[in-house]
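Final report, Chapter 2: Outcomes

The project's central promise was a pipeline that accepts a single protein chain and returns its three-dimensional structure in a standardized token representation, suitable for archiving and comparison. That pipeline is now operational. To close this chapter, we reproduce one record exactly as it appears in the project archive, with the input sequence first and the structure output second.
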Amino acid sequence: MLPFVMAGALSAQFAGLTLPPSGNNQKGVVTQYIGPVQVTIDYSSPAVHGPDGKDRHGQIWGKLVPYGLSTTSFGNGKPDPWRAGANENTVFAVSHDVTIEGQPLPAGRYGLHMIPGEETWTVIFSKDAGAWGSFFYDASHDALRVTVKPHKSDYREWLTYDFTARHPEEATVELQWEDLAVPWNIKVPNIADIYISHLREELTTVPGFSYQAYIAAAQYCLKVNKSLDQALQWADAAISMPFVGEQNFGTLSVKAQILTKLGREAEAKPIMEAALHSPTATPFDIHQYGRQLLSEKKFDEAMKVFQYNAERNGDAWPVHVGLARGYAATGDAKQALEHAKKALPQAPDDLNRKTLEAMIEALTKGSTSIN
């Protein structure tokens, strides 16, 4: 027979009533995004101190929460794992396919269960997400099991789930309670493909009515070196789509970069020339393209770009900086020093000023290693 508290809680749930949770184990939800991927853990949170106020510190692991499987008089009568919380199933939900500790887990909602151990724990993701606790747990419905190692942690009165490490493609989540934490890794494989899939959908909505959105999408593909044919279509839309496209330095230069990445340099060159000669190209735009060429070890091409910037824009910032870098790259320390000195009083902020001072110091000593 069910204990009275649990029976009351179950009855209230099925009746749709809002009553205090069984054992005063308050519900909690934690959500973390890994890029575009949403991860949510929905749980009920017991305390180290029991409902009667008794301090159970030191009595949680291996006692209140037994090591291994445990059998109760209620349910399917089989040894069951721990519900990884209190009351209803702890639910782990993820919006896209991920890996857990390197093992694949499809997008979906899962009942989260655990088998505690003194040295290692088993974390279970069950396809049964709607059960009450682990009383009817069925191992044949497991979607995934992984083995992890717990570690000592700062004291936590209330059982908590926390994302303790967060990176662009992965995160670490921990169950934390009393003096123990149980971590596991969640990683999103092929995260760039997910972003690009979102971009395809979003460009059919309001963002698709501006060339800036198409060029931003194309730039992302260029950055991650994926779906470059799609990126080229988006770049073309940014340039020439009716009512949307615009020929400017940004749209033309991105198309040229994509063509170059695709190995179509002969097509890219006149488009990049058009970008550089566009009325929209600023001194900084031209300078940055020259810097890009320097990073690619195309020193003579970069020098021509810096010289063109000077012909077109005179003494505007950062023309002299570009000439200093260009002459240094081609081994002319004297000319590089001359232009670095001209650029110094134009520096718009401390960072650029300090960079130029260091450049001048190096060039004064005859070094051209300033790039």
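Archive annotation: Residues 349 and 355 are 10 Å apart (CA to CA).
This record, like all others produced under the grant, will remain available to the consortium after the project formally closes.
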